[in-house]
């Protein structure tokens, strides 16, 4: 029983990281109908930005005590800003020029950007995995036979806070409202005087910043990072977005949590060898049974 | 008459292949031989992938998975079947050739079936889902081979003897298969079915409105494409003493995509050029391994931004030559 609870707890904390990344996929897809393959790499760069940010603030001076809270938040904001900038540049350089091209063209440039960032990161940061600096001091405590660390709790809380923030942003601000309009119908939105280019830019910035937050949380959770960490994690997050119904923000969160749970339970009860494969099995099942995703609605295709 | 002429052409091609193969075997350094064999295998990969990515417009980015299925299938069954054919035909070149080709066909059928398995659910959906499903499938395949003990798991499969897999793959067989597959796929592409495939690429909804069975055709093209990747995998397996799961990583799928994009999506001759180009540059850049993928990535982006249809677009080299240098093409109907 307590192992089950333990797996569920770990699954939820991993799943909330997937959810943060999945939000970026789903937002971009909702607006541009583009699978932003480079999103996993934005997540990776975000993790590295957090790594170098923490080193720059002299994390080793604090030893295992972790950074003071205000500095930890500063690291988070720094990484999110770097990733937002990266996301906006990717959009400007690689997606905007081909926005009116056939659908495959942006898909190929997206794959190109993803490969480029992976390999550039391997050249710049070396392919070797790096230990993630202890931004937080780890505290373990036991709750009814379950080992809880403050790191796992922080991951869950930070992710939740960001998602609530995103919900507020999308529902209450002018920009968020414009995003919803653009995702419903980009041409009509333009006719209503919305600067669609600006909204698309904002979408990339917000999605990338969330991915960077996910990157830091992932580093805290898994303790090591490497330049290829974005490939598999990005894919899983994408599957999470599809599972929840791509284009649907609540769906991305639900899908992320479910994928995290499925992965931990597979690792715990079947075999750790298949923890990565289960995601794709889920993807194939969902595509057969409910291609619009759990919370998605079927929209008839217009000609 | 037609049949006799075809037989004559086939025999002549066979003799030429055999002659060139023998010359390569004796006169040329091993390094160059390897590039020539890889170029042929790449041509099979590129032409096969082009059928689904170029002609049909459905993007697969996990073809390394199908190549892996073909490679492991051909290697495993080749090793198991060799004693049987040797018992039947006696030891020697004939038994080897039969074993090799039967193994290749088994690999191709297995790869084609896995194409069917992946394609049937995902091809009902919009194209970009397919991209992700194929990517995920490629990963599942690699993870499975990594854990399959009877296939050597992560160390790789080297057959049952310490000598490794027999070196069946020769110039003759690589290029015989390459020519056969190019002919098969170009006949398909320029047939009525091929036109329907292009129609799906151009506008799926319109094609469906014209009563084109889009899903069935997409699955057909996808399975054929997977099967030819399987053949290429089998040829690749018997080129070295063994195969490892990492030989079929995502990078391999990217290599294939670069091949067809360089040549132009939808052009068979373009795919051939792209396949040869990648084989040669890969070998030349062996020392610059870590820069290779950076350059590939930039190449992909720049080609898409500057010339999204690739070098040739969907045009074919012979047609370009005719347009530039040749006599005017006889009008349809008078050419029979």
What does this entry look like structurally?
With 303 residues, chain A is mainly alpha-helical. Chain A has a single domain, classed as ABC transporter involved in vitamin B12 uptake, BtuC (Orthogonal Bundle), CATH 1.10.3470. Chain A has eleven helices and four strands; from the N terminus they run ααααβββααααβααα. In chain A, β2 (140-143) and β3 form a beta hairpin. Chain A is globular. Chain B has 336 residues and is an all-alpha fold. Chain B has one domain: ABC transporter involved in vitamin B12 uptake, BtuC (Orthogonal Bundle). In chain B, α7 crosses α9 and α10 packs across α12 (289-306). The chains are: A mainly alpha (303), B mainly alpha (336). Chain A binds chain B through residues 34-35, 94, 97-98, 101-105, 107-109, 111-116, 118-120, 122-123, 231-232, 235, 238-239, 242, 273-274, 276-277, 279-281, 283-284, 287-288, 291, 301, 303, and chain B through 57, 59, 61, 118, 121-122, 124-125, 127-129, 131-133, 135-137, 139-140, 143-144, 146-147, 205-206, 250, 254, 257, 261, 265, 290-291, 293-294, 296-301, 304-305, 308.
Search tags:
heterodimer; A: 303 residues; mainly alpha; ABC transporter involved in vitamin B12 uptake, BtuC; two-stranded antiparallel sheet; two-stranded antiparallel ribbon; 11 helices; 4% strand; globular; B: 336 residues; 13 helices; 74% helix; disordered C terminus
């Amino acid at each position: 029983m307590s192992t089950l609870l333990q797996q569920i707890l770990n699954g939820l904390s991993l799943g909330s990281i997937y959810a943060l990344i999945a939000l970026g996929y789903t937002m971009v897809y909702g607006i541009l109908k583009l699978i932003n393959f480079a999103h996993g790499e934005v997540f990776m760069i975000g993790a590295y930005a957090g790594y170098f940010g923490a080193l720059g603030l002299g994390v080793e001076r604090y030893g295992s005590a972790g950074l003071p809270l205000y500095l930890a938040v500063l690291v988070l904001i720094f990484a999110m800003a770097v990733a937002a900038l990266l996301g906006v540049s990717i959009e400007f350089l690689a997606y905007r020029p081909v926005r009116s091209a056939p659908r495959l063209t942006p898909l190929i440039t997206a794959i190109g950007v993803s490969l480029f960032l992976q390999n550039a990161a391997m050249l710049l940061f070396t392919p070797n995995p790096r230990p993630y600096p202890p931004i937080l001091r780890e505290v373990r405590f036991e709750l009814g036979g379950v080992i809880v660390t403050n790191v796992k709790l922080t991951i869950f809380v930070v992710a939740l806070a960001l998602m609530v923030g995103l919900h507020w942003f999308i529902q209450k601000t002018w920009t968020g409202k414009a995003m919803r309009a653009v995702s419903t119908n980009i041409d009509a939105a333009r006719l209503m005087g919305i600067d669609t280019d600006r909204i698309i830019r904002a979408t990339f910035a917000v999605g990338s910043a969330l991915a960077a937050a996910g990157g830091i949380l992932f580093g805290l959770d898994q303790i090591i990072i490497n330049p290829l960490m974005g490939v598999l994690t990005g894919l899983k997050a994408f599957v999470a977005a599809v599972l929840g119904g791509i284009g649907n923000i609540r769906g991305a969160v639900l899908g992320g949590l479910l994928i995290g749970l499925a992965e931990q339970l597979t690792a715990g009860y079947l075999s750790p060898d298949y923890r990565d494969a289960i995601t794709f099995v889920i993807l194939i099942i969902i595509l057969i049974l409910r291609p619009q995703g759990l919370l998605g609605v079927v929209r008839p295709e217009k000609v | 008459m037609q049949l006799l002429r075809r037989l004559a052409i086939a025999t002549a091609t066979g003799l030429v292949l055999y002659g060139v193969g023998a010359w390569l075997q004796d006169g040329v350094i091993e390094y160059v031989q390897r590039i020539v064999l890889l170029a042929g295998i790449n041509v099979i990969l590129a032409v096969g992938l082009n059928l689904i990515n170029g002609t049909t417009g459905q993007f697969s980015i996990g073809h390394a998975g199908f190549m892996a299925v073909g490679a492991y299938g051909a290697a495993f069954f080749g090793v198991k079947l060799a004693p049987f054919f040797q018992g039947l035909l006696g030891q020697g070149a004939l038994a080897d050739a039969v074993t090799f080709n039967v193994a290749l066909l088994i690999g191709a059928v297995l790869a084609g079936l896995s194409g069917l398995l992946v394609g049937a659910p995902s091809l009902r959906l919009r194209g970009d889902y397919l991209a992700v499903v194929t990517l995920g499938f490629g990963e599942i395949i690699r993870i499975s081979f990594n854990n399959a003990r009877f296939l050597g798991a992560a160390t790789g499969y080297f057959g049952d003897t310490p000598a490794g897999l027999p070196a069946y793959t020769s110039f003759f067989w690589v290029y015989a298969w390459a020519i056969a597959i190019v002919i098969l796929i170009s006949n398909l592409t320029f047939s009525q079915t091929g036109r329907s495939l292009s129609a799906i690429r151009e506008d799926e909804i319109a094609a469906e409105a014209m009563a084109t069975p889009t899903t069935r055709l997409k699955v057909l093209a996808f399975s054929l494409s997977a099967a030819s990747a399987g053949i290429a995998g089998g040829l690749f397996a018997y080129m070295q003493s063994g195969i490892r799961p990492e030989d079929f990583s995502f990078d391999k799928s990217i290599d294939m995509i670069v091949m067809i994009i360089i040549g132009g999506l939808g052009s068979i001759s373009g795919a051939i050029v792209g396949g040869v180009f990648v084989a040669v540059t890969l070998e030349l850049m062996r020392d610059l391994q870590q820069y290779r993928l950076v350059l590939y990535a930039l190449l992909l982006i720049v080609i898409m931004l500057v010339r999204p249809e690739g070098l040739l677009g969907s045009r074919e080299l012979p047609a370009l030559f005719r347009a530039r240098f040749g006599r005017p093409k006889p009008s349809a109907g008078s050419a029979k």
